Amino acid sequence: MTDSANDAGPSLSRRVFAAAPIAAGAAGLFGASQEASAAGAVKLSAGDRLEIMELLSRYAWAYDCNDPEAAAAAFTPDGSIEAFGQITKGREAIVKLIESVYEIRGDKIWTHLIDHYVFQPTKEGCRVFCYWTQVEKIAPNENGNIRATGYYVTDCVQHDGAWLIERRAIVPWDGSKLPW
C-alpha cells in the first residue's frame, strides 16, 4: 500500500518515509556528517557520542536526585555553568549553585528530560546542543506539569581519558532561530 497525494510521480510507503530520518541520523552518528570534516576539528566516533550523551544524562540524574557533588563531577575541575545571568566556575562553586537552586525548589520534585542532540566537533572536543524540559511535581504519586523548557549549549572535552563538561550554558526556549 502506498500513500500518494496524487497519481503524478512515484509514491513512497509510510515505512520508507519514516525510515529516512533514521538513516540520515545513523549517517551522522557514524561520522558521515559535514560538521566532522571541519578543519582541525576533533573527529567524533559513535562511541564518543554515546559517552557524551551518557555524561549529560548522568549530570541530569545526579541533579534531579539531589546529588550536587555527582552533578559537579560531570565538569572539568575548572568547568563552568552560565545561567541566570551569571557564570559559575569550578566544581565547588557549581555544587553551591545547585544547592541554592534546591533551596528555591523546596520540596517539589524536578525531573529534567534531555533530547535531540546535535554534535558540533571543535578543535578541543565538541559542542553539544540539546533540548531540556523541566517537569515539576508536588508529590511523587501525582502527575507533573512542565515548569520550563530550553536548550543546553555544552562544550565537552577529554580530561584524564574521560569526556567531561567544560562549559554549559542554560538557555530558555524561544524557538526564534537555530542556536548553531
TrEMBL record:
CDD domains: NTF2_like. InterPro entries: NTF2-like_dom_sf (IPR032710), SnoaL-like (IPR037401), Steroid_delta5-4_isomerase (IPR011944), TAT_signal (IPR006311). Residues 48-168 form the SnoaL-like domain. It comes from the Bacteria. Gene3D superfamilies: 3.10.450.50. SUPFAM superfamilies: NTF2-like (SSF54427). This is SnoaL-like domain-containing protein. It comes from Hyphococcus luteus.
